[in-house]
Amino acid sequence: MTVNKAAPGRRGTASAPYLMTAPAVALFVVFILVPIGYAIWLSLHAMRVRGAGFGIRTEVFIGLENYLDAFRDSALVEALGNMLVYGLIMVPATMGLALLFALLLDAPRVGGKRYSRITIFLPYAVPGVIASLLWGFIYLPAVSPISAALEAVGLPAADFFGDTSIFFSIANIAVWGSVGFNMVVLYTTLRAIPKELYEAARLDGCTEWQIALQIKIPLLRPALVMTSVFTLIGMLQVFSEPATLRPMTNAITQDWVPLMRVYQQAFVENDVYLGAATSVLLAAATVLLSLGAIGVFRIRTNRSER
Amino acid sequence: MHSRRTFLASSAAMLFLSACGSGGADDAAPAASPIGGDENAAATLTFWAWAENIQRVVDLWNSKNPTQKVTLSGQAASDELIAKFLTAVKAGNAPDILQVEYQSLPTLITNNALQDLTPVIGDVKSAFPDGTWNLTSFGGATYGVPQDVGPMMLFYRADIFEDLGLKVPATWEEFGALAETVRKKDDKRYLTTFSPGDAGWLSGFAQQAGANWWTNEGGAWKVSIDDPATKKMLSFWGELVNSGTLLGDPMYTPQWNSQMNDGTIIAWPSAVWGAGVLAGVAPSSKGKWKMAPLPQWSADERFTGFWGGSSTAVAASSKQQAQAAKFAKWMNTDPEALKVLVEIGLYPSATAGQTSGGLGAAPDYMASQTDYYESAAAIAQTARGFSSWGPNTNVTYGALEDLMPTAVKEKADFAAVATKVQEMSLADLKKQGYEVSGG
């Protein structure tokens, strides 16, 4: 009896994990590993011409030539520079505002919480391209309500597409769209903190300000790490905002940020092979940076927990 | 050289572009891969196109050919369509029929994505002006049926010209002087804007100035984007834009729409299809715009260039090529189809389309200019294009559209952009393995 029961039980424990993870593994292989493999395969090939005249292009293996081209690509370096400047504005602004709003919403005696929460979250529901088009209208001097308002009170119209202001204009769209999401993550974590901690702090004579700094923020650390990594990845993936605004201004080139450079290579110059090589390099950089960021935050968190 | 010719002629996959004028009958015409099938057999065809309301032509076809159904799939325009089509070819689900801008044909041909239609479309050749037919023919092989052309012309606000006492410029010199006059008379207005991010527009100006960016000499490509004609044209615009006499902002933005509507911009060098665009972006100034020939580089010349225009091509991967070719021919030569093409705002390539009844009345928007299409037809006669599009026109356009806006932003030398684009275009040809001649 017991033997009979144990035998199928053992077989079950042996195969069950594989069976249960099979769907996830299959999806991972089909939608992650295979495309990555294909991109790497593409990056080692190129279309080259046989013969004179128009010639027919055929796919040939060229080794690491595309990678050398990508490394030597001054446009890519410039694009990385633009992305970093954009990131220096976007990441701190998004995280700072998300934290500020979350703390304000969590503070006692704040009115209109539900309304504010929805208002701040709503832009997240607007697709990036649509948001960029909307902001484009606001930035273009001839149709901008801001410029019109400034002119009405006798001030010079703001130039949203200047050499420096362009970075703020683009970052603003991303911040507007992503603060709400990050705020909700942080706010939810705040609501999960046991209220007894605050009561104890208040009995000890803490002000709300001190509670926020000494209790809430330290306990928010894991959520802050996660949202920071998301925001960093968002910076690396910046594409739709500048790409949508590009036709409206001379200040954004076709290869303004790295992903726009990849798009240009793959779909304007029809060289998916070089585009794939650049993508592989960028993906590698993204993984390294994300791991690095998580590592740094982990070390800090562990230390503070000890 | 002779042995190369023989080699080329023997290679079925090889295409050979005869250089302008010099290509004799002995030039190796590609041995066309046979186009299979019965053109009257039942078929279900897919058609990728972006022209607005082209569904109407498709509906007309479907009502007349119940056994050969064409399904239209509206697509993103031009460059994006090319990228999408090439991807679809790779993926094995390309459409049968495709709308292609003339300058994109070489990219598709060299990627082996288009069917050589030479054996089946010879019978409609006479329906088109020779110059237009050449836009889809490369080295004696024809890859598409010309659909519409875009000879360039100048649109201007007749009412504002009259108010300010302005004369329509006949030469570019007068155009430049006029731009300054406009600024002096009314500092809210500009004669026009120089849109730096539109390579097709710029190449139209270059064609008018007499440039010939690509020629193929004995199998080797000669690239001359930095020729004197192009540089002269770019320097001319550069002076006006850098001095603030003209705007340097892109076209087709919400701001441009508003400026075209409210009279901030009072002239627009465009193409024959411009009337349709104006009707969309500046509805409130209906009847106030007029059209004139593009200003000339010298008073005794009569030239213009092309901006836009497209053809109907058949995919190499299509399993119903004969039927697809039949549709392409019908759409661009049948009198009823041409009439619909005109009604949806296209200026057909076929001679009959430019003279037939449909074109008689001016477009509604240009009501004040009753002889609109007669003037357009006269201007179309003076249009000259490049003798050929290069095999890497997309890369060249990309470079131009990347560098020109920056030059405007930095008030740099516009002609220097041509030199840079020339270098980039040549380097790309060499990298891809093309033979390149001269500088």
UniProtKB/TrEMBL annotation, chain A:
Membrane disposition: Multi-pass membrane protein
Residue ranges occupied by any ABC transmembrane type-1 domain in the UniProt entry: 80-293
GO BP annotations listed: transmembrane transport
UniProt keyword Transmembrane, yes or no: yes
UniProt KW keywords: Cell membrane, Membrane, Transmembrane, Transmembrane helix, Transport
Tree of life domain: Bacteria
A Pfam family that the UniProt record links to this protein: BPD_transp_1
CDD domains: TM_PBP2
Gene Ontology cellular component list: plasma membrane
UniProt-annotated location(s): Cell membrane
UniProt family annotation: Belongs to the binding-protein-dependent transport system permease family.
Protein name: ABC transporter permease
Automatic annotation (TrEMBL), chain B:
One Pfam family from the record: SBP_bac_1
Gene3D superfamilies tied to this protein: Periplasmic binding protein-like II
Signal peptide range: 1-25
Classification via InterPro entries: Bact_solute-bd_prot1 (IPR050490), SBP (IPR006059), TAT_signal (IPR006311)
Keyword check for Lipoprotein: yes
Superkingdom in the source lineage: Bacteria
Keywords, sorted A to Z: Cell membrane, Lipoprotein, Membrane, Palmitate, Signal
Full protein name: Sugar ABC transporter substrate-binding protein
Organism of derivation: Nonomuraea glycinis
